[in-house]
From TrEMBL:
This is Protein-export membrane protein SecG. The keyword Transmembrane helix applies. Involved in protein export. Participates in an early event of protein translocation. NCBIfam families: secG. It holds the Pfam family SecG. The gene is secG. InterPro entries: SecG (IPR004692).
């Protein structure tokens, strides 16, 4: 049981890492802090496609990662 959970935890952590790395950046550096004030004030509509899917995948895998980690600590 413990070995299977460790394998699932490893897969979830790889998926979490990949989904976070594939997401687009929210900031544009110094130019974003100067020129991006209007977007932040009035809101910028988040894309409904690729970024939304990656955001949901990241959220689900992060929750799975935490739950599996706690289960493994409780078992061992």
């Amino acid at each position: 049981m413990g070995i299977a959970l460790k394998i699932v935890l490893a897969l979830v952590s790889v998926i979490l890492t990949i989904s976070i790395l594939l997401q687009s950046s929210n900031s544009a550096g110094m130019s974003g802090s100067i020129g991006g004030g209007a977007e932040q004030l009035f809101g910028k509509r988040k894309s409904q496609g690729y970024d939304a899917i990656l955001s949901k995948v990241s959220t689900v895998t992060a929750v799975l990662f935490i739950v599996l980690s706690l289960i493994l600590v409780a078992i061992e």
